[in-house]
Amino acid sequence: MSDPVVRCRSISRTYQDDSVPVRALVNVDFDVDRGEFVSLAGPSGSGKSTLLNVIGGLDRPDEGTVEVDGVSLNELSESALSDLRLRKMGFVFQAYNLIPVLSALENVEFIMQLQGIPAQERHERARAMLDELGLSGMSDRRPGEMSGGQQQRVAVARAVVTHPVLLLADEPSANLDSRTTEELLKLLQRLNEDHGVTIVTATHDPLVMSYAKRQVRLRDGEIIEDSARQAA
Amino acid sequence: MPLKLLTALSVRNLFRHRRRTIMLLLAITVAVAGVVVTNGLIRGMQFDMREAAVANLTGHLKVLAPGYLDDPNIEKSFELAPGWQPDLPAEEMEGWAARIRIPAVIMSERETRGVQFVGVDPAREDISFLGDVAITGEGLTDGNDRRVLIGVELARQLETDVGRRLVLITQGLDGRNREAGFRIAGLYDAEGTALEKQFVFTGVGALQNMVEAPVVTEVSIKLADELYEQEVKQQLTGFFSAQDVMDWQELEPQAAAMFVYVDSAILIWFFVIMGALIFGLVNTLITAVMERIREFGMLRAVGMKSGAVIVQVVLESTIIMLVGVFVGVLVGWVLATQWLGDGIDLSQWAQGVEMAGMRSVLTPYVLVGDIVLVTVLSLVFGVLAALYPAWRAVKIKPLEALRR
Question: Can you give the CATH number for the domain in which A175 is found?
């Protein structure tokens, strides 16, 4: 029996690009079950990042409904959406987006601080997470003192340390070399398999797609291929 | 709201661009120190004007016969019971003096002038400028001294000197002129020539003899603190029910108006200086916010509320303002009380200074209340200056910010 963490129904999203309407998503139905590792692939402008953003509540569809962990995002205010992202989602961005004035440990603790987790607990959890991701010697370093791969691992640690229902990663390997990308993907795979973290990633990197359990391809705002449907 | 986290972030962000932060701190420090020093100088001027007004034979309170102010002459006088003195606690009153002050004509062998002829008890005149003046020759010995003390400038105009005789003509209670000769005991050198030209002093008893009436035209009281003014005024009004009891603000309305105006001038000056500073602060904060717009986008994407972003920007502004104001107040206070502690010599602008009712040395006077006001208003300005940049930080959608 399926247990959807994400449930999108008939979602459409149109942008105005220099007054020209661009249909980023067209009537998309898309579900993600708990524990899945899904890659959204497609060329630039295919709608994969838009779909990811709509699922993450960073963008709102013009039409259709989006539910995350049973909560409909359509009716939520900006403040409630913020709260939902804080409590249920983890984000990994293409440009890492760590806070440059905080150390690796503080960056990992940061979202737990926003969640109000007590200092002792968040300190222990952040240290354990950095250890698990092979960053134990980096905890006092600031982002500017780390390589791109190390920064992205810190970003992953920050995203998953709060045990989110859903981890959303937008082009996580875009700024990494192939060796570092492979390390990152093994890490995501381990988090998915060992910790049951549900992952949705937008990418056009075949290596990333190869690590995902389910590949979804988009073109011109529509899903043209879904490995889950094919298997069914 | 995680205030501890936001404060830590704000402090660290200030260290991100040290040079910019230091320049901003310098600007705040200079502005606040400038405000503290100029406020001190303006207050010094304000208190000088009040002191001069009170010392100008006025006192904080004065008892006068009704109508004396409109037509000051010996008919507008009253008698004091022998041995009378104000029934006031010693801690409230610095001193008092009963005087006759009437218009008179003074004549030397060469010149004639119109003056205010004032009968005083010199022992009581430490409450007026007469207690501070330098005297060439001798001062008056007591209330029955028949000699006169005239100003240096008047002596120059009358072409006379110590030891010479002068004739004074004034009106007696019966309306007839009284004329008498007086020897000059000494010449007094006041802060301004206006006083020296205006007042001629003799013993109060001597003047009572001249006008043939045991009367006074005024009782002047100098208080230990202006705080007691209204309370003492009420007491005196009860005692002198047939006379007018007036405070220095009523007697010297121009000085009083200036005194009130200075309070507004201090605020206006503060707003001008800080207003200019705030433009710089807003500009710097906008730059700082726009440089970190992706970071703000990330913070909001991961769930930080708009309010927390606003608080973070406001905290940055408030912290830098707090440090700048603290250093500025300290520097300003040191400059005002140590560097300018002995005062600024304004004697080269003596005429203008005299017209403004000030002394020739302007000493800054730093009030704790002014420091508190500058500190509180600066912090309020710091918060207000951050609101627009903070609004810019939250106005942009997280997704747009992340794409930049």
Answer: 3.40.50.300
pLDDT in the model for residue A124: 94
pLDDT for the residue numbered B359: 63
Task: Give A58's contacts in chain B (Cβ within 8 Å).
Answer: 301, 397-399, 402
Instruction: Give the percent of chain A with pLDDT over 70.
Output: 98
pLDDT at B52 over 90: no
Interface contact flag, A101 B16, Cβ < 8 Å: yes
CA–CA distance, B304 with B2 (Å, rounded to integer): 10
Tell me which of A113-117, B3-7, B17-21, B191-195 is least confident. B191-195
Asked whether B71 and B370 are in contact (CB, 8 A), the reply is: no
Q: Would residue A120 count as lying in a domain?
A: yes
Query: From the list A82, A84, A116, which residue is nearest B300 (CB)?
Result: A82
* Interchain pair A83, B303: CB under 8 A: yes
| A73 in a structural domain | no
B356 pLDDT more than 80:
no
**Domain extent listing, chain B:** 3-53+256-403, 59-247
Burial B207-224 (b: 16+ CB within 10 A, else e): bbbbbebebbbbbbbbbe
Please list every residue in chain B whose beta carbon sits closer than 8 Å to the beta carbon of residue A110.
5
Output the average pLDDT for chain B. Answer: 88
Distance from CA of B278 to the nearest CA of A (A): 26
Does any domain span residue A3?
no
In a domain, A139, yes or no: yes
> Does the pLDDT at position B198 exceed 60?
yes
Query: From the list B13, B298, B397, which residue is nearest A97 (CB)?
Result: B298
Work out the pLDDT band at B103, boundaries 50, 70, 90.
very high
Could you tell me the residue range of the domain that residue A136 belongs to?
A: 36-49+83-231
B337 is written with which tokens? 């009380």
Q: Where are the alpha helices (DSSP H) in A56-177?
A: 78-88, 104-115, 119-132, 148-160
Domains: count for chain A? 1
How far B398 CA sits from the closest chain A CA (Å)?
7
